[in-house]
Design a protein that fits this description.
3-stranded antiparallel beta sheet; 10% strand; 7-stranded mixed beta sheet; globular; alpha+beta; 4 domains
Length: 676
Amino acid sequence: MSGAWLDLDTDGETLDETEARGGALSAVGRKAAIAATLPLLGLYFTSGEQPLTVSPTLGKAVSGSLLHELLAGLRLRVALAAAARLEIILSRISERPTFRYQLTSLESVGAITGQLDVNRYTTSFGAVAEAPIYPVIHVERAQETAENVLVAYAALWLLRELHSSYQSSVAPATAPEAQEYGRRTRALDELLRLPWLAGCIRKADEVRRRQDEHALIAAAKSRLRRREIANATPYRELVNWIERSLEGQPAAESGDLDWSFYGDRFDTKLFELWCLHTLAQEVSRQLCVNMPTVHLSWRSGDAAYKWERPAGTLTLHFQRSISSISSGHKPEWRRREDNQRSLGGIPDIVAHATKRSDGTEHMAIIDPKLRQRGGPPTEELYKVLGYLSNHSLMSSPRGAILYHTTAAEGELPSYSYERHGASGALHAVALNPARPIQSRSAIGPVATMLLGLLDIPPLLASVGKEPIADNDSEASAEVQVRARSLELQALAAAMPKSLLDASKRRLETVIGKGRWTVLTSEIQTMLATSEHVGFSLDPAADFSGPVIGICASAENILHDYIFGPAIAHNTQLGNGYKTLGQVIHATLKALNNGNEELHQAILAQLNRMNVVHATAQQLMQDLANMNRRYRIPAAHRDLVSEATWQAAWNVVIGPTGLLARAVDVLILGTPPSPSL
């Protein structure tokens, strides 16, 4: 960036050279940070609602032309990134644009020069003319397909956006942005002059005037679905991109453009956004869940990231005042002169947690600082303590400083502090965007601290260090099941006893006292926790935890009374049978006289319990259906709806549900042999 064209005030303080001295991102680090957070930057720089007019990220009152220049500059940058991406897509389309054949009716004078249109010829037969006229049909190629009109629409749209944002900005002609603008507009102009696309401009303008974009997209998607487009891949990419853009999603994504022309004046803000993104990634990883989608209105006050968990809600806010997030934590210090204006301050990142069990709130302050340090950033840690003290958060203070380092190898330096004789945690973590794997590991303790706001342990550490596979294999689903079960166990340990007891009494009434009393305390607690969470979650939340919890009750009975006793004399028999589906399959094989040693061991256990084979076989088949319809989908990181939770509840819980049947068949029928 050149001159003072776009001067950002970073965190409510005057930006001076000491803030970034020796701490500016390297070219590699800047490129890595942009690649990781470009979708976040696209929303941060959005020109739609323009929430920057009231956003505390400006740090001070910005009025008139300065605010206009700021918004225009940010808008221009997003348009440049979008144009770069569109140029790549359209160049691939231009290699093989689509067309369709169309029939055109013409009249040939004196001779038949094409296929005779018999219908028209017979209706005009007998007409008097100086020379015979023959209606003919010509077949010709037409380029005005729905997908090509969409190409023209996208190019025209971006040209208008580039022109508007550049004219609104005050970027000097020598600025890198101006040079990039010239190159991008020339490329789009040249593209629109291509013969196959020039004929689509008129229809594209009609689509814009009529606001008929969605119909155009639907027509292009229909042709893609019917495989009428030979060069389908770039066209499909364009359709998906335009559709997302119309829905308000960012027009630019990771890797679209090397934005190194930003220069180091933007590095401070970029580092803060990268820290926000990296922290959210690590929280999601430790929870064993997908990264949440950034809310479109996060720049106007909503949370940037939100996790709805059985234990409660955890949110990350970017550059919001603490009192605007929680009205119960207003600043204690006020100006003596008028006793009205408070001593505020805007932390870069605020984590806010609300426990579901009792509604209590807990917060943590995280401040990224683009300043390299040779030792612990003590001064910045005291600033975090000041935030906590001024907002009545010292009963259990939690905070962190995330500072920059250019360390190229080895562990990134970090420091952790505990409050003597009381609860509390402070972390100082060095991060480097050019080293994403090491940075994620370094920020791990901060993410763990945030999970601790809801009393959730780092679940990934408890289920194993192996990475979670992206495919939908049953083995990876079991890791998710284990994580959700551990989360429910942690919630049960933190829940008030009165809430847990109330859930237990309701369940005892539903499934019957005789059945309830034979369940282990672990199963009772898991069921009660799932019942409480499932019927208290917001309808739009993820119900995967409660679904897995109630399914685990029947699963535990199967393990405790069938599979576990069957392999007790030879645990090697259980090798390779780690999932519920595998155990159910082995039991069904045993009931059908399977000849493997494991099958014979399971059958012997069933016989010792005097289980009726036909009844057990039907139970196993129904358990397999439960596993396929509810348990496995809940373990694959997709959001589970309230309707699915209610369906699973009806199938598993109730006087005739799977849990009651499992108790009747496997526990109450005949007690296990004393020797087992």
